[in-house]
Amino acid sequence: MNIALWIVAGVLAAAYFLGGGYKVVTPKEKIAAAGHSAQWVEDFSSGGVKAIGTLEVLAALGLILPAVLDIAPVLVPLAALGLVLIMAGATATRIRRHEAALVLVDLTYLVLAGFVVWGRFGPAAFGG
């Protein structure tokens, strides 16, 4: 279980660090021009997109660093919970925009983050 949680957390951390970092450094207009899956940015201000990206980068760091450094490892499931909330918002945005195929992608990320929340608060919690 612990290995599976580390793998899922690592994959999520990589995806959100790169995706969130892209949102932070790339202008909203360029993100929107990237393709159909990025049209959601039209529903948010430039600052809102950068805020989402910043939260994703922080959550990515929170999935790994507290456990690796053994400093407040309880932050790992809290970071994952933050990603669950972000992905719930992403899912709602996709539903509102009638982007059904992309809802499945967002729900997959939500479930993976939820697995980390469940595992790190429950059966594979980090010992104190």
TrEMBL record:
Subcellular location: Membrane
Membrane topology recorded in Swiss-Prot or TrEMBL: Multi-pass membrane protein
Pfam families hit by this protein: DoxX_2
Keywords from the named record: Membrane, Transmembrane, Transmembrane helix
Transmembrane segment boundaries: 63-88, 100-121
Family matches, as InterPro entries: DoxX
Name recorded for this polypeptide: DoxX family protein
